[in-house]
Amino acid sequence: MANQEDIFKKVISHAKEYGYVFQSSEIYDGLSAVYDYAQNGVELKKNIREYWWQAMVQLNDNIVGIDAAIFMHPTTWKASGHVDAFNDPLIDNKDSKKRYRADVLVEDYVAKIEAKIDKEVTKAAKRFGDSFDKKQFLETNQRVLDYQTKGDGILKRLGKSLENEDLADVKALIEELEIACPLSGSKNWTDVKQFNLMFGTKLGASADSAMDLYLRPETAQGIFVNFLNVQKTGRMKIPFGIAQTGKAFRNEIVARQFIFRMREFEQMEMQYFIKPGTQQEWYEKWKEKRMKWHLSLGMGEENYRFHDHEKLAHYADAAADIEFKFPFGFKELEGIHSRTDFDLSQHEEFSGKKLQYFDPEENKSYVPYVLETSIGLDRMFLAVFSNSLKEEELENGTTRTVLKLPAVLAPAKAAVLPLLKRDGLPEVAQKLVDELKWDFNVVYDEKDAVGRRYRRQDAAGTPFCVTVDHQTLEDNTVTIRHRDTMEQQRVALDQVKAIISKEVDMRYWLQRI
């Protein structure tokens, strides 16, 4: 486990050192679980958002976008169930005085069992070499099967207890598994209690007349309350979708794991409105579509898996997560939920306004069902960033740190480097920067030996370095170096743009979907 922790620590320090993520208001000792995206981070985040938006909105002629306000009428949250049911089960350790999410304590316990399975697989792979069949080993090795059964049993019981709101059994489970406080090692626990996660605020000039408001804990409700507005003004026919990216806020008591679980975060959600009765077919379709989007980034099929929910929300009839292998194990990256007609029906009831679709083919009105895909932009950022950070042994015995970001998402697409700071080389390099910056984010770097500049750009995740040298002055050619392979090729100055384009253009990447 320590190894995973070390990898994660490297991810966090690299994110700071190379201008991706800073602790919020750090000069005042920061604010727990709140982060700022720095000069490279904001570009990576923007590129991920854009990659999602193009795949979701631009390439689907029946999906449109909106940008709803963060503040909403307070009855919205009553209707959506957030006022009464948006809770986390919390437990305090009496000795360390630390508060934890009870379900996360149990899930972390199961993650340790999964780590033992991984250990067995690694040992067996070493023992059997090329003849090792991982699938067969997982299905037949008794020790692995026992671990599997134990882990599944624990999660099933946890899911059932949470569903039945049997918090006493959640505590009993923690005690039976002898789960200790990660900080103090103490097993002296309080009862489990529910805690509402919404941030409250006030709207109005004076305390007496102020209205109680909430910062939205999700972006979906802004879509639901605008369903009819969009449908009518866009003359949309079912099935159609409404997409949105934006900030949401949750008063996470146990915010942790860097930007994985934050109090202020960004979501990318799409609600797909469908005919009742077609939800199973659309659920399968969107699961497949969303997985293809993830795989198009080339981060390794083995790093993704589907996890079907044991515990369904009261309004859902199917739910699955796409989980990604973060440095701390497989965790939820995106949710795909079949939400039935719960949301629109609730808003219809609480607002007294009809939220129905008149289907000309059926010649009748009905409340549409909803299929949701919802992904955390910050989690996606962490998935991309942590997966891309590599330490590589080179042939000459040295190592290099390289951030192998998918080129389509990289903050800067190319760095232009004059070999020396004289002989007219900086002028040629600067001219190339001025030409390229209309199409890409490019950086100019003239400090240090060229080898050190290459290393710096590798660590920052820049896919290409273009070096201007004395030969450039003679024949208008430059050296272009590829980050991932470190291969260098001599190309004509007027080819540079096309070479970079081919690697970084969203069109080439999205066509894989």
Automatic annotation (TrEMBL):
Subcellular location: Cytoplasm
InterPro entries: aa-tRNA-synt_IIb, aa-tRNA-synth_II, aa-tRNA-synth_II/BPL/LPL, Anticodon-bd, Anticodon-bd_dom_sf, Gly-tRNA_synthase/POLG2, Gly_tRNA_ligase_bac, GlyRS-like_core
CDD domains named in the record: GlyRS-like_core, GlyRS_anticodon
Pfam hit, one: HGTP_anticodon
Keywords tagged on the record: Aminoacyl-tRNA synthetase, ATP-binding, Cytoplasm, Ligase, Nucleotide-binding, Protein biosynthesis
One biological process term in Gene Ontology: diadenosine tetraphosphate biosynthetic process
Catalysed reactions, as listed in the record: tRNA(Gly) + glycine + ATP = glycyl-tRNA(Gly) + AMP + diphosphate
Chief localisation class: cytoplasm
Signal peptide positions (record): none
Binding residues annotated for ATP, in chain numbering: 250-252, 260-265, 332-333, 376-379
Keyword Cytoplasm appears in the UniProt entry: yes
Aminoacyl-transfer RNA synthetases class-II family profile domain boundaries: 177-418
Record-level Gene Ontology MF annotations: ATP binding; bis(5'-nucleosyl)-tetraphosphatase (asymmetrical) activity; glycine-tRNA ligase activity
Binding site for substrate: R101, E218, F265, E266, Q267, M268, E269, E372, T373, S374, I375, G376
GO-annotated cellular components: cytoplasm; extracellular exosome; microvesicle
EC assignment: 6.1.1.14
Function: Catalyzes the attachment of glycine to tRNA(Gly).
Subunit structure: Homodimer.
Similarity annotation: Belongs to the class-II aminoacyl-tRNA synthetase family.
Protein name (database record): Glycine--tRNA ligase
Species annotation: Flagellimonas hymeniacidonis
Encoding gene, per UniProt annotation: glyQS
